[in-house]
Amino acid sequence: MTNPLFSILIAQYNNGKYFQDCYKSIMAQIYDHWEVIIVDDGSTDDSVAVMKEIIGNDARFKIEINSENKGCGFTKRKCAELATGEICAFLDPDDVITPDALSVMVDEHAKHPEASMIYSKPFWCDEYLNIQSERKSQQVENGVSDFFDLDGYLFAFLSYKNDFYHKTEGINSYLQRAIDKDLVLKLYETGPAFLKDKAMYKYRIHPNGISTNRNQDKAYFWYWVTIMDAAKRRNLNIEDLFIEKALQSRREVSLEKEIAAYNKSIIFKVLRKLGLFKLFVN
């Protein structure tokens, strides 16, 4: 694989206000043989106009617009279908990558021609891209039939070989969330995944983000849809796994809510004011 074309895939909906940072990070790449595929999912604001103004007449950027809002699964699948590069990676329009991100990924794919994907780890950032922390990761075990990446190690920045993607049935266009989970589980079935233990992706956390707290319950549902789909492809029964992981998680969430409610209760406030809380809990 000599000087491969790298396809940066951007599925976007009403995120034009953040695109300037994303664009600058792409233009700052050390590796310069790339294309950018942007698919807009029927934005209701001026995002497309904003992005077109930023991009100008740069032919390396291609913008497609869905005729109506189709959802994240449909839009990301379309991105993948339009990609012509040998290596592909999704980048959210409100996030950025470090200047060496593409270069590092190209080198890693050259080292591992058998790999379906190379993954790394992100920085968690605030709305203004100030780094808050660096996510930990580790090398996953390859070739395991019941591997579902429950720990979420297969994460951004993640790139894959287009040839391996075309060995799969492609991203499930029905999915509203957990599309990245669907993608990595399908890629895992076609070839090994290797970790590059380096943070190269700045993940912006802001009120309008799809991964914020108010969307977590919905995301959890779609997360298990992708796992069940993977189990079906692999002819596995995951009933026990679901009971162990999903229901346990729900119980933990319920307990956290009960504790939070108690902490706000009148009796807790009275006991604390009287200095009796330590005696009470002991």
Automatic annotation (TrEMBL):
Molecular-function annotations in GO: hexosyltransferase activity
Location of the Glycosyltransferase 2-like domain: 7-133
A Pfam family annotated for this UniProt entry: Glycos_transf_2
The protein's name: Chondroitin synthase
Organism: Chryseobacterium salivictor
Upper lineage: Bacteria, Pseudomonadati, Bacteroidota, Flavobacteriia, Flavobacteriales
Gene transcribed to yield this protein: kfoC_3
